[in-house]
Amino acid sequence: MAAVLLTILKILGITLLVLFGIILTVVLLLLFVPIRYKIRAHRKTEDERPVAADIKVTYLAHIVNAAFSYPEAAYLRVRVFCFTIYRSDTKKVSKDSSDEEKMSTHSGKEADDNKENAEKDRQEKKGDRAESSIKEVNSELVQDQTEVKQTGPDKESAEAEDYSQEDGNFLNKIIGFFRKIWSVLKNIRYTISRICDKIKDIVNNIRYYVEILKSDRFDRGWKVCKSQLGLLFKMLRPRKFTGELLIGTGDPASTGQVMAAYGILYPLLGNHIEVTPDFERQIVEGSLFMKGRITIFGLIKCAWIIYFNKDIRELIKLFKREAV
């Protein structure tokens, strides 16, 4: 019985070790296998489409790859194990077909609804006409009754009351006018005080952030960010970078100025980009090729160091004013 239990435990241990080894290898592959990219671009004025570009990104020995080309077949394609997961041009076609089907189904429903709504509108219009005619008759009767009431000796008293009401309305208008002027003056005073308060708040905020920028904590955090961003730029920059450029502005003097700027940048670009001047024509042609790689581990490492740095975390809180 004990031997059977030992054999079962051995089998379980071996399977667990195998699974752990598989998971570990997959994680290491995902972290340390680089993402490779290639970029090709050229510009030729003689072609029908002068600008063309081709971008390819591969990962895990071309198991995952993405491609983008312009302008012959301007689409983005993503593949995994030769199976297309995403393609921008096919997605648009499927969307258009589904929209057409929806429009066709809705059109039939809308036609039936329109018929029913038309009949309802006709009935409602008939009812509205009858009600409007009744209202007109009633309004005429009311006007006749008021005219009859106003005739006679009461008419003079009504006119006197109207004159007194007009005088009272005139005085009320004058008082309301002066009240409006007083309220406007009060509002001007309040607005000026609010503007002054806002200016004080802005000045205090500027002083607060200037003090943060002058602090030693900001200097330490900036050094960490600067070093990590420099490493990230080194990882992202292409390992191979070549290009050719034919440039001419149509003016020999300005073309010479462009070449003088190229001479300043020659220590950085001389081994990678070759520039040929054309002092007679106005032309810009050339080609470009880039190839590089980056690992996910490098990105995670830079993000980890920046995010979990104490000084940077405190600076984030200070900029958000959470630590105040």
Automatic annotation (TrEMBL):
Record keywords: Transmembrane included?
yes
Per the UniProt record, which residue ranges are transmembrane?
12-35
Which portions of the sequence form the region Disordered? 94-163
Keywords of the record, alphabetical order, are: Membrane, Transmembrane, Transmembrane helix
Record keywords: Thylakoid included?
A: no
Spell out the Basic and acidic residues composition-biased ranges.
94-138
Q: Enumerate composition-biased segments (Polar residues).
A: 140-149
Protein origin, superkingdom: Bacteria
Q: What is this protein called?
A: DUF2953 domain-containing protein
Can you name the source organism?
Parablautia intestinalis
